[in-house]
Amino acid sequence: xxxxxxxxxxxxxxxxxxxxxxxxxxxxxxxxxxxPLEYLMSAWREFGDVVQFPIPRPPTYxxxxxxxxxxxxxxxxxxxxxxxxxxxSLSLVTGEGLLVADTPAWRHQRPLVQPAFHHxxxxxxxxYIDIAVQRMFSRWDALPPGSVVDMDAAMMHGALEVxxxxxxxxxxxxxxxxxxxxxxxxxxxxxxxxxxxxxxxxWVPTPANRKLQSSVRELDGAVGRMMDERRRxxxxxPADMLDLLMGSRDDAGAGLTVTEIRDQVVTFIVAGHxxxxxxxxxxxxxxxxxxxxxxxxxxxxxxVLGGRPATFADYGRLPFARAVFDEALRLYPPAWLITRKAHxxxxxxxxxxxxxxxxxxxxxLLHRHPVLWPDPDAFRPAxxxxxxxxxxxxxxxxxxxxxxxxxxxxxxEGVLMLSSIxxxxxxxxxxxxxxxxxxxxVTVRPVGGLPLRVxxx
Length: 457
Ligand code: HEM
Known about the structure:
The chain has a domain at 58-273 and 333-404: CATH 1.10.630.10. 50% of the residues lie in helices and 11% in strands. The chain contains 17 helices and 14 strands. Helix 8 runs antiparallel to helix 13 (274-289), helix 13 packs parallel to helix 17 (407-424) and helix 14 (291-304) crosses helix 17. The longest helix has 26 residues, at 207-232. The protein starts with 8 loop residues before the first strand and ends with a strand. Protoporphyrin IX containing FE binds next to helix 6, helix 12, helix 13 and helix 17. Protoporphyrin IX containing FE is lined by residues 98-99, 106, 110, 163, 267-268, 271-272, 275-276, 279, 334-335, 338, 396-398, 402, 404-406, 409-410.
Protein backbone atom coordinates (compact mmCIF):
# COMPACT_ATOMS: atom_id res chain seq x y z
CA UNK A 1 0.00 0.00 0.00
CA UNK A 2 1.47 3.36 -0.98
CA UNK A 3 1.65 6.28 1.46
CA UNK A 4 1.27 9.76 0.01
CA UNK A 5 2.65 12.80 1.76
CA UNK A 6 0.02 15.42 2.58
CA UNK A 7 0.26 19.19 2.89
CA UNK A 8 0.76 20.47 6.41
CA UNK A 9 -2.84 21.45 6.86
CA UNK A 10 -6.19 21.46 5.11
CA UNK A 11 -8.21 24.66 5.58
CA UNK A 12 -6.70 25.04 9.01
CA UNK A 13 -7.03 21.37 9.99
CA UNK A 14 -3.61 19.79 10.45
CA UNK A 15 -2.92 16.70 8.36
CA UNK A 16 -1.89 13.96 10.78
CA UNK A 17 -2.35 10.89 8.56
CA UNK A 18 -1.99 10.05 4.86
CA UNK A 19 -5.03 10.44 2.65
CA UNK A 20 -6.45 11.80 -0.60
CA UNK A 21 -6.21 15.45 -1.51
CA UNK A 22 -9.37 17.47 -2.19
CA UNK A 23 -9.38 17.17 -6.02
CA UNK A 24 -8.76 13.41 -5.81
CA UNK A 25 -11.70 12.98 -3.46
CA UNK A 26 -13.92 15.16 -5.66
CA UNK A 27 -13.08 12.95 -8.64
CA UNK A 28 -14.17 9.92 -6.62
CA UNK A 29 -17.52 11.56 -5.80
CA UNK A 30 -19.61 9.30 -8.03
CA UNK A 31 -18.04 6.14 -6.49
CA UNK A 32 -18.62 7.53 -2.99
CA UNK A 33 -22.29 8.05 -3.84
CA UNK A 34 -22.77 4.76 -5.65
CA UNK A 35 -20.87 2.53 -3.27
CA PRO A 36 -19.27 4.18 -0.23
CA LEU A 37 -17.88 0.85 0.93
CA GLU A 38 -15.95 0.40 -2.30
CA TYR A 39 -14.48 3.87 -1.79
CA LEU A 40 -13.44 3.14 1.81
CA MET A 41 -11.84 -0.11 0.66
CA SER A 42 -9.84 1.66 -2.05
CA ALA A 43 -8.77 4.43 0.37
CA TRP A 44 -7.52 1.79 2.84
CA ARG A 45 -5.63 -0.05 0.10
CA GLU A 46 -4.05 3.17 -1.18
CA PHE A 47 -3.22 5.00 2.06
CA GLY A 48 -2.98 2.39 4.79
CA ASP A 49 -4.58 1.61 8.14
CA VAL A 50 -5.32 5.21 9.15
CA VAL A 51 -6.61 7.54 6.42
CA GLN A 52 -7.45 11.21 6.80
CA PHE A 53 -9.96 12.66 4.38
CA PRO A 54 -9.62 16.29 3.20
CA ILE A 55 -12.57 17.44 5.28
CA PRO A 56 -11.77 20.23 7.76
CA ARG A 57 -14.89 20.14 9.94
CA PRO A 58 -14.99 17.72 11.53
CA PRO A 59 -11.54 16.24 10.80
CA THR A 60 -12.47 12.84 9.39
CA TYR A 61 -10.48 9.60 9.68
CA UNK A 62 -10.94 6.04 8.52
CA UNK A 63 -9.32 3.74 11.08
CA UNK A 64 -8.63 0.15 10.08
CA UNK A 65 -5.61 -0.40 12.27
CA UNK A 66 -6.58 -3.43 14.42
CA UNK A 67 -5.24 -1.90 17.67
CA UNK A 68 -6.73 1.47 16.75
CA UNK A 69 -10.19 -0.06 16.23
CA UNK A 70 -10.04 -1.79 19.62
CA UNK A 71 -8.89 1.42 21.25
CA UNK A 72 -11.88 3.33 19.86
CA UNK A 73 -14.45 0.69 20.82
CA UNK A 74 -12.94 -0.85 23.94
CA UNK A 75 -9.65 0.47 25.43
CA UNK A 76 -10.53 4.17 25.27
CA UNK A 77 -14.23 3.70 24.44
CA UNK A 78 -15.34 6.41 26.87
CA UNK A 79 -13.56 9.00 24.75
CA UNK A 80 -15.81 8.23 21.77
CA UNK A 81 -19.47 9.26 21.54
CA UNK A 82 -22.25 8.64 19.05
CA UNK A 83 -22.99 12.23 18.09
CA UNK A 84 -22.23 11.59 14.40
CA UNK A 85 -24.12 12.20 11.18
CA UNK A 86 -24.81 8.45 10.80
CA UNK A 87 -26.61 8.16 14.13
CA UNK A 88 -28.26 11.59 13.87
CA SER A 89 -29.95 10.56 10.58
CA LEU A 90 -31.03 7.22 12.04
CA SER A 91 -32.54 9.06 15.01
CA LEU A 92 -35.05 10.67 12.62
CA VAL A 93 -36.70 7.22 12.74
CA THR A 94 -35.59 5.68 16.03
CA GLY A 95 -35.75 8.82 18.18
CA GLU A 96 -33.29 8.60 21.08
CA GLY A 97 -33.42 4.77 21.21
CA LEU A 98 -30.52 2.78 22.64
CA LEU A 99 -28.67 2.37 19.33
CA VAL A 100 -28.21 6.09 18.65
CA ALA A 101 -28.33 7.50 22.20
CA ASP A 102 -25.21 9.42 23.19
CA THR A 103 -23.55 8.54 26.47
CA PRO A 104 -25.71 10.23 29.18
CA ALA A 105 -29.04 9.04 27.73
CA TRP A 106 -27.56 5.62 26.99
CA ARG A 107 -26.33 5.18 30.57
CA HIS A 108 -29.87 5.76 31.86
CA GLN A 109 -31.52 3.49 29.25
CA ARG A 110 -29.27 0.45 28.98
CA PRO A 111 -30.06 -1.11 32.41
CA LEU A 112 -33.78 -0.49 31.83
CA VAL A 113 -33.69 -2.14 28.40
CA GLN A 114 -31.46 -5.07 29.40
CA PRO A 115 -34.26 -7.18 31.01
CA ALA A 116 -35.99 -7.37 27.61
CA PHE A 117 -33.04 -9.52 26.43
CA HIS A 118 -33.01 -11.96 29.33
CA HIS A 119 -32.85 -15.70 28.97
CA UNK A 120 -36.66 -16.16 28.73
CA UNK A 121 -36.81 -13.91 25.67
CA UNK A 122 -34.23 -16.14 23.98
CA UNK A 123 -36.21 -19.25 24.91
CA UNK A 124 -39.41 -17.71 23.50
CA UNK A 125 -37.82 -16.87 20.17
CA UNK A 126 -37.02 -20.53 19.54
CA UNK A 127 -40.77 -21.17 19.13
CA TYR A 128 -41.14 -18.13 16.85
CA ILE A 129 -38.27 -19.35 14.69
CA ASP A 130 -40.07 -22.65 14.24
CA ILE A 131 -43.32 -20.90 13.25
CA ALA A 132 -41.43 -18.77 10.69
CA VAL A 133 -39.56 -21.81 9.29
CA GLN A 134 -42.70 -23.96 9.00
CA ARG A 135 -44.51 -21.19 7.11
CA MET A 136 -41.53 -20.87 4.78
CA PHE A 137 -41.60 -24.62 4.13
CA SER A 138 -45.35 -24.59 3.39
CA ARG A 139 -44.84 -21.82 0.84
CA TRP A 140 -41.96 -23.67 -0.84
CA ASP A 141 -43.78 -27.02 -0.79
CA ALA A 142 -46.71 -25.42 -2.60
CA LEU A 143 -44.41 -24.49 -5.52
CA PRO A 144 -43.48 -26.90 -8.34
CA PRO A 145 -40.41 -28.98 -7.23
CA GLY A 146 -37.07 -27.20 -7.68
CA SER A 147 -38.62 -23.72 -8.00
CA VAL A 148 -36.47 -20.63 -7.73
CA VAL A 149 -37.30 -18.38 -4.76
CA ASP A 150 -35.85 -15.07 -3.62
CA MET A 151 -34.02 -16.19 -0.46
CA ASP A 152 -33.36 -12.57 0.44
CA ALA A 153 -37.09 -11.80 0.56
CA ALA A 154 -37.72 -15.07 2.44
CA MET A 155 -35.12 -14.22 5.11
CA MET A 156 -36.44 -10.65 5.48
CA HIS A 157 -39.95 -12.02 5.95
CA GLY A 158 -38.82 -14.68 8.45
CA ALA A 159 -36.69 -12.27 10.51
CA LEU A 160 -39.48 -9.69 10.68
CA GLU A 161 -41.86 -12.35 11.90
CA VAL A 162 -39.43 -13.44 14.66
CA UNK A 163 -38.58 -9.96 15.96
CA UNK A 164 -42.26 -8.90 15.62
CA UNK A 165 -43.46 -11.83 17.72
CA UNK A 166 -40.63 -11.38 20.25
CA UNK A 167 -41.72 -7.76 20.70
CA UNK A 168 -45.47 -8.07 20.56
CA UNK A 169 -46.22 -11.74 21.27
CA UNK A 170 -48.50 -13.55 18.91
CA UNK A 171 -50.45 -10.45 17.88
CA UNK A 172 -48.82 -9.69 14.57
CA UNK A 173 -51.94 -8.35 12.95
CA UNK A 174 -53.16 -4.76 12.71
CA UNK A 175 -50.96 -2.26 14.49
CA UNK A 176 -47.88 -4.50 14.77
CA UNK A 177 -47.92 -5.09 11.03
CA UNK A 178 -48.45 -1.40 10.23
CA UNK A 179 -45.64 -0.50 12.61
CA UNK A 180 -43.14 -2.72 10.82
CA UNK A 181 -44.17 -1.38 7.39
CA UNK A 182 -43.94 2.25 8.55
CA UNK A 183 -40.48 1.64 10.08
CA UNK A 184 -39.15 0.22 6.83
CA UNK A 185 -40.64 3.02 4.76
CA UNK A 186 -39.08 5.66 7.06
CA UNK A 187 -35.73 3.89 6.76
CA UNK A 188 -35.90 4.20 2.95
CA UNK A 189 -35.93 7.97 3.33
CA UNK A 190 -33.00 7.89 5.75
CA UNK A 191 -30.93 5.84 3.29
CA UNK A 192 -31.81 8.18 0.44
CA UNK A 193 -30.74 11.17 2.57
CA UNK A 194 -27.40 9.53 3.37
CA UNK A 195 -26.63 9.26 -0.35
CA UNK A 196 -26.73 13.00 -1.09
CA UNK A 197 -24.29 15.37 0.54
CA UNK A 198 -26.74 18.23 1.05
CA UNK A 199 -30.33 17.48 2.01
CA UNK A 200 -32.99 19.93 3.10
CA UNK A 201 -33.61 19.77 6.86
CA UNK A 202 -36.31 17.30 7.94
CA TRP A 203 -38.87 20.12 8.48
CA VAL A 204 -38.80 21.29 4.81
CA PRO A 205 -41.88 19.71 3.16
CA THR A 206 -40.11 17.85 0.32
CA PRO A 207 -41.85 14.64 -0.86
CA ALA A 208 -39.19 12.56 0.96
CA ASN A 209 -39.59 14.49 4.19
CA ARG A 210 -43.38 14.21 3.96
CA LYS A 211 -43.02 10.42 3.55
CA LEU A 212 -40.71 10.36 6.58
CA GLN A 213 -43.11 12.44 8.68
CA SER A 214 -46.14 10.35 7.77
CA SER A 215 -44.26 7.11 8.56
CA VAL A 216 -43.08 8.50 11.88
CA ARG A 217 -46.68 9.60 12.69
CA GLU A 218 -47.87 6.09 11.85
CA LEU A 219 -45.17 4.61 14.12
CA ASP A 220 -46.07 6.88 17.01
CA GLY A 221 -49.78 6.10 16.62
CA ALA A 222 -49.31 2.32 16.42
CA VAL A 223 -46.94 2.08 19.42
CA GLY A 224 -49.18 4.45 21.41
CA ARG A 225 -52.30 2.34 20.76
CA MET A 226 -50.51 -0.91 21.65
CA MET A 227 -49.24 0.57 24.90
CA ASP A 228 -52.67 2.00 25.80
CA GLU A 229 -54.22 -1.40 25.30
CA ARG A 230 -51.67 -3.05 27.57
CA ARG A 231 -52.13 -0.42 30.25
CA ARG A 232 -55.86 -1.20 30.20
CA UNK A 233 -55.16 -4.92 30.56
CA UNK A 234 -51.75 -5.33 32.19
CA UNK A 235 -50.14 -8.78 31.83
CA UNK A 236 -49.64 -10.69 35.08
CA UNK A 237 -46.53 -12.35 33.70
CA PRO A 238 -44.63 -10.42 31.02
CA ALA A 239 -45.31 -12.26 27.77
CA ASP A 240 -43.06 -10.38 25.37
CA MET A 241 -40.42 -7.66 25.06
CA LEU A 242 -42.98 -4.84 25.08
CA ASP A 243 -44.32 -6.04 28.47
CA LEU A 244 -40.73 -6.25 29.75
CA LEU A 245 -39.93 -2.71 28.57
CA MET A 246 -43.12 -1.32 30.08
CA GLY A 247 -42.50 -3.07 33.41
CA SER A 248 -38.78 -2.30 33.71
CA ARG A 249 -37.75 -0.21 36.79
CA ASP A 250 -34.40 1.09 38.02
CA ASP A 251 -33.24 0.97 41.66
CA ALA A 252 -35.15 4.16 42.41
CA GLY A 253 -38.35 2.64 40.97
CA ALA A 254 -38.35 4.82 37.83
CA GLY A 255 -39.15 3.29 34.43
CA LEU A 256 -38.84 4.28 30.77
CA THR A 257 -41.13 7.08 29.56
CA VAL A 258 -43.72 6.47 26.82
CA THR A 259 -41.44 8.15 24.28
CA GLU A 260 -38.44 6.12 25.41
CA ILE A 261 -40.41 2.90 25.01
CA ARG A 262 -41.59 3.95 21.55
CA ASP A 263 -37.96 4.67 20.61
CA GLN A 264 -36.76 1.26 21.83
CA VAL A 265 -39.54 -0.60 20.00
CA VAL A 266 -38.68 1.11 16.71
CA THR A 267 -34.95 0.57 17.40
CA PHE A 268 -35.49 -3.17 17.87
CA ILE A 269 -37.34 -3.40 14.55
CA VAL A 270 -34.64 -1.38 12.77
CA ALA A 271 -31.65 -3.05 14.45
CA GLY A 272 -33.02 -6.55 14.85
CA HIS A 273 -34.74 -7.32 11.58
CA UNK A 274 -32.71 -6.49 8.50
CA UNK A 275 -29.40 -7.27 10.25
CA UNK A 276 -30.29 -10.90 10.98
CA UNK A 277 -31.97 -11.28 7.58
CA UNK A 278 -28.93 -9.89 5.76
CA UNK A 279 -26.58 -12.26 7.63
CA UNK A 280 -28.77 -15.26 6.79
CA UNK A 281 -29.11 -14.21 3.15
CA UNK A 282 -25.33 -14.12 2.74
CA UNK A 283 -25.07 -17.52 4.46
CA UNK A 284 -27.28 -19.00 1.71
CA UNK A 285 -25.46 -17.13 -1.04
CA UNK A 286 -22.15 -18.58 0.19
CA UNK A 287 -23.53 -22.06 0.84
CA UNK A 288 -24.95 -22.28 -2.68
CA UNK A 289 -21.47 -21.48 -3.94
CA UNK A 290 -19.76 -24.01 -1.66
CA UNK A 291 -21.63 -27.34 -1.94
CA UNK A 292 -19.26 -29.25 0.40
CA UNK A 293 -19.81 -26.72 3.20
CA UNK A 294 -23.54 -27.03 2.59
CA UNK A 295 -23.32 -30.84 2.84
CA UNK A 296 -21.43 -30.54 6.17
CA UNK A 297 -24.13 -28.22 7.49
CA UNK A 298 -26.85 -30.64 6.39
CA UNK A 299 -25.02 -33.57 8.04
CA UNK A 300 -24.85 -31.70 11.37
CA UNK A 301 -28.54 -30.80 11.13
CA UNK A 302 -29.48 -34.42 10.33
CA UNK A 303 -27.46 -35.67 13.34
CA VAL A 304 -28.69 -33.13 15.87
CA LEU A 305 -32.20 -32.16 14.76
CA GLY A 306 -33.12 -35.09 12.52
CA GLY A 307 -35.91 -33.01 10.97
CA ARG A 308 -37.64 -32.16 14.30
CA PRO A 309 -38.19 -28.55 15.46
CA ALA A 310 -35.13 -27.07 17.17
CA THR A 311 -35.15 -26.46 20.94
CA PHE A 312 -33.13 -23.93 22.91
CA ALA A 313 -30.80 -26.71 24.08
CA ASP A 314 -29.91 -27.49 20.46
CA TYR A 315 -28.27 -24.10 20.07
CA GLY A 316 -25.09 -25.28 21.82
CA ARG A 317 -25.03 -28.52 19.83
CA LEU A 318 -24.67 -26.93 16.40
CA PRO A 319 -21.05 -25.70 16.26
CA PHE A 320 -20.79 -26.01 12.49
CA ALA A 321 -23.94 -23.93 11.88
CA ARG A 322 -22.50 -21.33 14.27
CA ALA A 323 -19.20 -21.36 12.35
CA VAL A 324 -21.05 -20.85 9.03
CA PHE A 325 -22.98 -17.94 10.56
CA ASP A 326 -19.74 -16.42 11.96
CA GLU A 327 -17.92 -16.77 8.66
CA ALA A 328 -20.80 -15.08 6.80
CA LEU A 329 -20.82 -12.31 9.45
CA ARG A 330 -17.10 -11.90 8.84
CA LEU A 331 -17.33 -11.60 5.08
CA TYR A 332 -20.65 -9.73 4.93
CA PRO A 333 -21.03 -7.91 8.26
CA PRO A 334 -24.55 -6.41 8.03
CA ALA A 335 -23.51 -3.31 10.01
CA TRP A 336 -20.73 -2.33 7.61
CA LEU A 337 -20.09 1.09 9.13
CA ILE A 338 -19.60 2.21 12.75
CA THR A 339 -18.93 5.87 13.47
CA ARG A 340 -17.79 7.76 16.55
CA LYS A 341 -16.95 11.30 17.55
CA ALA A 342 -13.70 11.72 19.52
CA HIS A 343 -14.24 13.89 22.59
CA UNK A 344 -10.54 14.45 23.27
CA UNK A 345 -7.45 14.07 21.08
CA UNK A 346 -6.13 10.51 20.88
CA UNK A 347 -3.41 8.47 19.22
CA UNK A 348 -4.71 5.83 16.80
CA UNK A 349 -2.39 3.56 14.84
CA UNK A 350 0.46 6.00 15.50
CA UNK A 351 -1.47 9.06 14.24
CA UNK A 352 -2.81 11.84 16.40
CA UNK A 353 -6.53 12.54 15.89
CA UNK A 354 -7.76 15.87 17.25
CA UNK A 355 -10.69 16.19 19.67
CA UNK A 356 -13.98 16.54 17.73
CA UNK A 357 -12.83 14.21 14.91
CA UNK A 358 -15.25 11.89 13.13
CA UNK A 359 -13.88 8.34 13.27
CA UNK A 360 -15.09 5.86 10.66
CA UNK A 361 -14.67 2.15 11.41
CA UNK A 362 -15.81 -0.62 9.10
CA UNK A 363 -16.17 -4.27 10.21
CA UNK A 364 -16.18 -5.10 6.46
CA LEU A 365 -12.63 -3.75 6.13
CA LEU A 366 -11.31 -5.04 9.45
CA HIS A 367 -12.63 -8.53 8.64
CA ARG A 368 -10.49 -8.51 5.50
CA HIS A 369 -7.30 -7.35 7.19
CA PRO A 370 -4.57 -9.82 6.16
CA VAL A 371 -2.81 -9.38 9.50
CA LEU A 372 -5.86 -10.80 11.29
CA TRP A 373 -7.28 -13.26 8.77
CA PRO A 374 -5.18 -15.63 6.65
CA ASP A 375 -6.68 -15.91 3.17
CA PRO A 376 -9.21 -13.21 4.09
CA ASP A 377 -11.48 -13.45 1.02
CA ALA A 378 -12.05 -17.21 1.29
CA PHE A 379 -15.30 -18.58 2.78
CA ARG A 380 -13.91 -21.11 5.25
CA PRO A 381 -16.18 -21.68 8.30
CA ALA A 382 -13.71 -24.28 9.64
CA UNK A 383 -11.39 -21.41 10.62
CA UNK A 384 -13.74 -20.86 13.58
CA UNK A 385 -13.47 -24.50 14.66
CA UNK A 386 -9.77 -25.24 14.28
CA UNK A 387 -8.55 -22.40 16.51
CA UNK A 388 -7.20 -20.35 13.58
CA UNK A 389 -9.60 -17.44 14.04
CA UNK A 390 -9.05 -14.82 16.74
CA UNK A 391 -12.61 -14.09 17.87
CA UNK A 392 -11.67 -10.71 19.31
CA UNK A 393 -10.96 -9.57 15.74
CA UNK A 394 -14.54 -10.43 14.70
CA UNK A 395 -16.66 -7.35 15.36
CA UNK A 396 -19.97 -7.69 13.44
CA UNK A 397 -21.75 -6.71 16.70
CA UNK A 398 -19.28 -3.95 17.58
CA UNK A 399 -17.32 -4.30 20.83
CA UNK A 400 -16.93 -2.77 24.27
CA UNK A 401 -19.60 -0.81 26.12
CA UNK A 402 -21.77 -0.23 23.06
CA UNK A 403 -21.67 -3.82 21.80
CA UNK A 404 -24.98 -5.03 20.34
CA UNK A 405 -27.51 -5.85 23.05
CA UNK A 406 -29.22 -8.28 20.62
CA UNK A 407 -26.11 -10.38 19.94
CA UNK A 408 -27.36 -13.55 21.67
CA UNK A 409 -30.81 -13.04 20.14
CA UNK A 410 -29.17 -12.87 16.70
CA UNK A 411 -26.99 -15.94 17.26
CA UNK A 412 -29.87 -18.09 18.50
CA GLU A 413 -32.05 -16.98 15.60
CA GLY A 414 -29.33 -17.24 12.96
CA VAL A 415 -27.95 -20.64 14.00
CA LEU A 416 -31.31 -22.35 14.59
CA MET A 417 -32.89 -20.98 11.42
CA LEU A 418 -29.88 -21.98 9.34
CA SER A 419 -29.75 -25.50 10.70
CA SER A 420 -33.53 -26.04 10.53
CA ILE A 421 -33.73 -24.95 6.90
CA UNK A 422 -30.60 -26.92 5.89
CA UNK A 423 -32.19 -30.05 7.39
CA UNK A 424 -35.11 -29.91 4.94
CA UNK A 425 -33.99 -27.98 1.86
CA UNK A 426 -30.84 -27.68 -0.25
CA UNK A 427 -30.11 -24.50 -2.19
CA UNK A 428 -28.31 -23.96 -5.48
CA UNK A 429 -27.89 -21.18 -8.00
CA UNK A 430 -30.17 -21.49 -11.04
CA UNK A 431 -28.34 -21.72 -14.39
CA UNK A 432 -26.29 -18.56 -14.86
CA UNK A 433 -26.78 -17.48 -11.24
CA UNK A 434 -23.85 -16.51 -9.02
CA UNK A 435 -22.90 -14.70 -5.84
CA UNK A 436 -24.68 -11.32 -6.04
CA UNK A 437 -22.90 -7.99 -5.75
CA UNK A 438 -23.15 -6.42 -2.30
CA UNK A 439 -24.67 -2.98 -1.87
CA UNK A 440 -24.11 -1.10 1.40
CA UNK A 441 -27.47 0.34 2.48
CA VAL A 442 -28.59 0.34 6.14
CA THR A 443 -27.15 -3.19 6.01
CA VAL A 444 -25.20 -4.94 3.23
CA ARG A 445 -27.83 -6.07 0.69
CA PRO A 446 -27.52 -8.34 -2.38
CA VAL A 447 -28.18 -6.39 -5.57
CA GLY A 448 -31.21 -7.96 -7.30
CA GLY A 449 -32.08 -10.12 -4.27
CA LEU A 450 -30.91 -13.73 -4.02
CA PRO A 451 -32.75 -16.03 -6.47
CA LEU A 452 -31.92 -19.62 -5.49
CA ARG A 453 -33.40 -22.99 -6.42
CA VAL A 454 -34.76 -24.69 -3.27
CA UNK A 455 -34.86 -28.47 -3.42
CA UNK A 456 -36.63 -30.67 -0.81
CA UNK A 457 -34.11 -33.11 0.69
C1 HEM B 1 -26.81 -10.25 12.89
C2 HEM B 1 -27.55 -9.39 13.57
C3 HEM B 1 -27.07 -8.11 14.18
C4 HEM B 1 -25.96 -7.35 13.89
C5 HEM B 1 -24.91 -7.63 12.82
C6 HEM B 1 -25.97 -6.22 14.77
C7 HEM B 1 -24.98 -5.24 14.79
C8 HEM B 1 -24.90 -4.26 15.77
C9 HEM B 1 -23.76 -3.38 15.95
C10 HEM B 1 -22.50 -3.35 15.09
C11 HEM B 1 -24.03 -2.59 17.01
C12 HEM B 1 -23.09 -1.55 17.62
C13 HEM B 1 -23.12 -0.25 16.85
C14 HEM B 1 -22.07 0.73 17.37
O1 HEM B 1 -21.17 0.36 18.11
O2 HEM B 1 -22.15 1.89 16.96
C15 HEM B 1 -25.34 -2.92 17.50
C16 HEM B 1 -25.99 -2.32 18.55
C17 HEM B 1 -27.29 -2.58 18.89
N1 HEM B 1 -28.10 -3.58 18.38
FE1 HEM B 1 -27.55 -5.00 17.08
N2 HEM B 1 -27.08 -6.28 15.57
C18 HEM B 1 -27.77 -7.42 15.25
C19 HEM B 1 -28.95 -7.87 15.85
C20 HEM B 1 -29.69 -7.16 16.74
C21 HEM B 1 -30.95 -7.57 17.29
C22 HEM B 1 -31.64 -8.91 16.99
C23 HEM B 1 -31.39 -6.55 18.09
C24 HEM B 1 -32.67 -6.42 18.88
C25 HEM B 1 -33.73 -7.16 18.77
C26 HEM B 1 -30.38 -5.52 18.08
C27 HEM B 1 -30.42 -4.32 18.77
C28 HEM B 1 -29.34 -3.49 18.96
C29 HEM B 1 -29.34 -2.36 19.90
C30 HEM B 1 -30.52 -1.89 20.74
C31 HEM B 1 -28.05 -1.80 19.85
C32 HEM B 1 -27.52 -0.64 20.67
C33 HEM B 1 -26.85 -1.21 21.93
C34 HEM B 1 -26.24 -0.14 22.84
O3 HEM B 1 -25.65 0.83 22.35
O4 HEM B 1 -26.34 -0.32 24.06
N3 HEM B 1 -29.35 -5.92 17.25
N4 HEM B 1 -25.84 -3.96 16.72
